[in-house]
Design goal:
- The protein has 277 residues and is of the alpha+beta class.
- It has a single domain, classed as Creatinase/methionine aminopeptidase superfamily (Creatine Amidinohydrolase, Alpha-Beta Complex), CATH 3.90.230.10.
- It contains six helices and 15 strands.
- It has a five-stranded antiparallel β-sheet with strand order 8-7-9-14-15, covered by helices on one side. Strands 1, 2, 4 and 5 form a four-stranded antiparallel β-sheet that branches.
- The chain is globular, with a radius of gyration of 17 Å.
Length: 277
């Protein structure tokens, strides 16, 4: 992933400009969440997300990536990220990751959610997928909660890995990480989902990052399919992907891609997000 390299700390007015594209990104995923079910195609979900973004006055920012012509990435089962939407029909029990982004007035939002479709509740693989999805989502919130009090950015990855380790035998992808976000969808700095040497940049007002753990039920080795986009686990294990764009400001943090600013997700940690003034 190539990152653009503007200054990593935004001014207060720039933080305010990131609120609307974040909410529009969230709305596109809300629409997908309301529609997703067995029998739909990934292409139909893509059209739903695109309609919401364009009706909101925005532009799908994934379409601005050279060579990509879709609004979302739709990754099913052993596909981890960057799956191309199309004619694939979703099946009962599938785990489906939808990554979406909106650009509005030159500023960007980026977020992802995973869904386990209704199927046989007694099916062992469905149970594994449900657990995997819960662990991945909660690892994201552990990372966001860490950001709220962190001195340096790499504390986020430490919190994510620490939580995942406690949950059992799961893999954290290392070849794909989070990123800064602003005028470009992918900016410096990288946001690791695992422990690394070094502290990373200081966490201080103006930092805006997309935190996005990608967790597997098995190994972390991946291969890129012949379409040059879809990233799949080598061992065929299932994967989940959750992501939020988060702003640090003088009064606290605000999850830009959550309608409530992250209040529900952060409540178990005793953290109250503060709107950007």
């Amino acid at each position: 992933m190539a990152f653009s390299k503007p200054g990593i700390y935004k001014k207060p007015d720039e933080l305010r400009r990131l609120v609307a594209p974040g909410l529009l990104t969230s709305a596109s995923l809300d629409a997908v969440a309301a529609a997703i079910r067995p029998g739909l195609t990934t292409g139909e979900l893509d059209a739903i997300a695109e309609r919401v973004i364009r009706d909101g006055g925005g532009e799908p920012n994934f379409m601005l990536v050279p060579g990509y012509r879709h609004t979302v990435c739709s990754s099913v089962n052993s596909d981890v990220v960057h799956g191309i939407p199309g004619g694939r029909v979703l099946q009962p029990g599938d785990i489906v990751s939808i990554d979406s982004g909106a650009q509005l007035d030159g500023w960007n939002g980026d977020s992802a959610r995973s869904f386990v479709l209704d199927g046989d509740p007694d099916d062992d693989r469905a149970l594994v997928r449900t657990t995997l999805n819960r662990v991945t989502e909660q690892s994201l919130w552990h990372g966001i909660a860490a950001l709220a009090s962190a001195k340096h950015l790499n504390e986020v990855g430490d919190a994510i890995e620490g939580y995942v380790e406690e949950q059992g035998e799961f893999g954290i992808l290392e070849d794909y990480v989070g990123h800064g976000i602003g005028r470009s969808m992918h900016e410096e700095p990288p946001v690791f989902n695992y422990r690394v040497r070094g502290r990373g940049p200081a966490v201080r007002p103006g930092l805006v990052v997309a935190i996005e753990p990608m967790i597997t039920a098995g190994g972390i080795d991946t291969v890129t399919q012949d379409d040059d986009w879809t990233v799949t686990t080598v061992d065929g294990s299932d994967a989940a992907h959750w992501e939020h764009s988060v702003a640090v400001h003088a009064d606290g943090i605000w999850v830009l891609t959550a309608a409530d600013g992250g209040a529900a997700g952060l409540a178990p940690f005793g953290i109250r997000p503060v709107p950007i003034p």
